[in-house]
Amino acid sequence: MAQSNRRASGGRIDRNRPVRFQFNGKSYEGYEGDTLASALLANGVRVTARSFKYHRPRGIVGHGPEEPATLVELDGEDASGNRPATTVPLRDGLSARSVNCWPSPDFDVSGINQLFARFIPAGFYYKTFKWPNWHLFEPTIRKAAGLAAAPAQPPSSGHFEARHAHADVLIAGAGPAGLQAALEAGRAGKRVFIADEGTEAGGSLLNRNLTINGQPAMDWVADAVQELRGMGNVTHLQNATVWAYREHNLLIVNEREPEQGSVLERSWRVRAGEVVIATGATERAMVFADNDRPGVMLASSVQAYVNRWGVAPGQRVVLFTNNNSVYAVAADLVAAGVTVEAILDSRDTVPQEALDTAQGITVHTGTVAAGVKGHKRLRAVHAVSAKSGADTWIDCDLLGHSGGWNPTVHLWSQSRSPLRFDEDLSAFVPDAAAQACRAIGAAAGDLTLDRIVQGGLDLPYAIEPLWRVDVPGQRGKAFLDLQNDVSVSDVQLALREGYDNVEHVKRYTTGGMGIDQGKTGNINIIGTVAMQKGVPLQDVGTTTFRSPYTPVSFGAIGGLREESVLFPYRHTPVTQWNKDNGAVMYEAGARWRRPGYFPKPGEGLQEAVNRECLAVREGVGVYDGSPLGTFELKGRDVPRFLDFLYSNVMSSLKPGDGRYGLMLSDDGLILDDGVAFRLDEHRWMVSTSTGHADAVNQHMEKLLQTEFPDWQVMITTVTSQWNNATICGPRARDVMQALGTDIDLSPEAFPFMSFRDGTVAGIPARVVRVSFTGELSFEVNVAPRHMAELWAKVMEAGAPFGILPVGSESSHVLRVEKGFLSLGHEVDGTVDAYDLSMGWVMSKKKPDYLGKRSVALRREGGSTRRELVGILPGDPNRQVPEGAPLTLGGRKEATEGLVTACVWSVVNERWVGLALLENGHARHGETAHVRLKDGVIPITIAKPVFHDPDGKLLRS
Amino acid sequence: MMLIPCPFCGKRNESEFIFGGPVVAARPDPNAVSDAEWVEYLTIAPNPLGPVQEKWWHARGCGEWLTIWRDTRTHDIVEAPNGSE
Amino acid sequence: MFVLLRWITQTLCERKSVCVRVNLFIDEFCSLINIVTTMQKYSLFSLARNALSGHRNWPLAWRSPPLKDQYEVVVIGAGGHGLATAYCLAKEFGITDVAVLDRGWLGGGNIARNTVTIRSNYMRDESIPFYVKSVSMYEGLTKELNFNMMHSKRTMVDVVQTWPKLRELRRRQLVMDIYGSTYEQITTDELRRRIPALTGGGPDARLPIICGMVHTDAGVNRHDAVAWGYARAADAMGVEIHQQTAVQSLIRGADGAIEGVETNQGTVRAKKVVVAVSGHTTTLTETAGLKLPLRTMNLTAFVSEPVQPLVDVIVNCPDSGFYFSQSDKGEMVIGGAPDMGQSFRRDIKQNVFEDTVTSMLSLFPSFKKLKLMRQWGGHLDIAHDASPIMDQTEVPGLFVTAGWWGGYKAIPAGGLTLAHLVAKDEPHPLMSSFTLDRFRHLDFVMEAGTTTAR
What we know:
The structure holds three protein chains of three kinds. Chain B is mostly beta strands.
């Protein structure tokens, strides 16, 4: 019969809107407002899951995120795995399956594991599956674990987004305490952000029949929500979980299905002045034999299903408790027409007000539920008197149990605020706050409504702890953690073997390590450990509460930031031209995307590179040098600053001139190389390598602001204010002339390492004579708005001279032929200027500069140096892989160096390369050996320059 | 993610800043110290279980280098730069 | 005889699945006969036997003896390195009068927090042989310690997205080959075949995938088992493990040499004291007036919900800055970049975390619907040159092992080499480049392969 357990009336469901859904292939009907769990219970579905390890049949236990037993996998549009059935809102067409069983939870093949249970106690796998090796067993074991299938696709439509929010007060939880706090703060004009994980505000009041000032408590909730809605200073979110509490009062909120078009989930990063933790409390389970059987539920969940969803999960109910809260449950059940067979109360005396609440119901004091009958369906409860041992079986189809209540302190604990064990409440409660936060309501240990809202009526709590039921002779596993199948005997075994710290117990038994993070059971593990060791719970302590409070999809955490949002890329005004002209573009450091080479149709990398290189060596080429880091330095102290920054002297430069230099860190490592130009007396231009521009900027600013605050130097980053086309090659001057310029280009008037301001092709330009190719070069710098025009004009003017665009691959070849340094290649670890035959750059004259003392100290240590050399493979047509090790005789032993670069030299028509080699400077002309996996390549050691060794061309 | 007080911009998210390392002793005259003293200056940084003085660069903000005292156990900023509050 | 029997069975049963089970039994039988230590042998037989007695007769994995006032060697820190060192002192050098002291619970430091990636794809001659040794020791550890480490030699695959990274990895490949560590380049197609969930990084992506690199030596295992296995084996040889025993300061004698430690349980004297307390090294060594080039940093990790087997290798994406593997329980165990700044807080930096997640989603878009289940941080100390330090300090008798980030993979060889140093007063050849002496002339060891995500 459809919805056999649905009550005739009541519940916060819309009976006018029936919803069809599927569970494990069968069709059912529920109502709008149901969760999957309430709908399954309404339909009388008892066995909804199989357990993780033993594959025991399980039913629904809870009613919210604490649900430990029934995890489902959703199909179709909603596809997602491992969802507690209690947190899945029912919607038309929903299709869900139980995880962890095959073919169905009612008949599960792996149920056979139950027979072997005694052979697979906690930690059994540490003791076996050792031979021949674990990897052999692994595939089978992995398949057995893992719960739901991994998602196969990203969401087919919609997107995730993130938002920032700032609040004077962030309130986590919109139950009675949270709403009250929101009203107070809102009325006081504070910026309030209140978020609650449920689909509706009200928290525990949704599940209970309470009154405030004589009116139904939910009326009070509705009024509160209404008032908050009218406040412009209040942001109130439902279906939004505060899942992380970070440092400096940053909290992260996951809002599901915000009512806004295509947004699937929204991540809020909320920075709060004060955090109010009003997260309520979670009922904990009683621990007794077979406490996992379908039909054994948390008492408060039974209450929730009856009141909130109009479902009676059983007709003949036994309740088992150690506190007053179930007496209200009993009253609600009776009011709903459900038979309460008995209340088993482990306390010897029950407060009169509790008994008054449950008038007419048999109460067995000093009595526990020791075990149950029924495998897939509860049939009876074994009631045992703790004192006399007298026992009786009480027939029933539902057992609701309450081991007491735990303040939900996850967020509190995440804030790094400590907990203390409260003996009166038998629970861990918030202690002193470590950040600007406070806990209120049930989260603070005020477990009853009268203590939270004025005019609220509630039973006093009154608990006498019972951490586990221990009746001699009672058989059956008593579960502490249903999700990971951890029972009392597992904890006892762990303790017996010496795993006696609570963290050891957790790890050895895996208790509390499931998706629910042990919301219902962890405290019982702690209680069991305390009982076993005979120490107070405070001394056992809790395991760490880790974010997230409940699982959050990675999509929501990532928001919209994949790809180029996370890694933005930089490009120049020539990018479109490059693409139009067939450039192969790729990442070139510091997030620049640059052309690697410009192949003609059908041409490979090497042919294209050879063609480009030949153009530069014999005609003319042009490359876009815009990404080079460029800084303008102004002020009267720039000269002494640069003298401190660079290893060589810069202060002696005359306006208009420039110099190549090395920047070292103070521990003597090469930071960067580049050139500095003196623009005029107090203005300088410093350029750096592309990849290190940001690091050099940081370095310079740090020195100036923290070491030399009184020095007058102002640094402006102008990398993106100047773009340049660098025209290089023997015909570069011809192209410049063809472009038309008012600058005298003759080597006498405009020598190497100087710059001139003027116009080129009618565009205001600063032309710099530097060379990274070894050829005559003019670096024509213009404003970015002129760059595309300049580039087009260069290509046009250069056409008669056969000008070619040059990519970074060719730049690499050209610099290797010249033995010019590339930081990413030749600078490896502690290589210094002397190793690179650049001792001239290390000023002797200056008493101090960054790195001077350290380089000297390192060299005094006498360690063997790896020095830069050129290499010529014995076979001129044999390429040596870059990075290949050099070993003595090519033997399989420790390396004596490595090949840093190897390129086809168009001028030498052979492979040439550079290497760092132990004592390499003294070994020119000798043979060294490259060791590869499949052979040895002899190489001749040479000077690291293969073209124009005297540098005549670049000065021409 | 911390909120770091910038004297010009006020409290800003840590993601706007670049960590600049702990404040170490003043750089000695490299020509006046022993090798060991030089190495100590370069390699030994304070690593307290408690407040440490350190530099941060508001790189994605105003560009200011600032110095704060921060407790390494709690990440509380126990002393902010002048003018930031 | 048993060897012969096993060989015959193996030969006969080749390529038959049943042989696995038969061999398993034979092996367990052999092990049962060959009990050599005082430990109760863990095996299928012992498990079955104990099952029949309701598992009531399992002995303690380790004892809790009273703390003596003197030992030959005191090891501070019952983490991976401390326990492995104590074990090796007893096993390799016959030094059993050893106390391992820990302020918390054994195995509760970084060994409880790491992402269990075991590999040897380093770049330097100084590093590779050490890690090759460590990886091979890990492979034999289950047998050696009679404790299932669940070692799964499942291969690490690098997803290469930039040419400079590829150049660096090729360089590592060729040097690694000298030391017998494997690294092979595979095509993007092959990469996607091996990791079907890797659907991002296409030609139009921000960082298109260039190729993959495969390190077949790499594996994962169970970190708690490593701590417990070492503790149990060391205990069986006489080493004492004292938990909840916080060392407050180091004690030096009049001659400047180490004399022992002051703890919350009283003074313990020893002529040799080993500091193996990642993150807190300087906290302790400062009490002896010692300055070390170390700073404490935070590194975080997180796991997803458990799902059915999806990825059977360790996936490392150095250009995107994250890596992960799927645990036997089905969780994706994910790590990213370290935080900036010094920290003892074991915190999560939301911005760093979001960056890691986002770069993961760029390559694995289907993970958008996968859920985060738990995240945590751990602190570790990093040396001035980012390479480890293992040495006897200028305080005679005081030894440190520190500066390990990504030190999990180094535990077996780290324990061996440190025990060697303590026992013989000279560095083990595999660690001779990692002494404090290198700082005297700033001869840094600049390693590129230190953390997985680099």
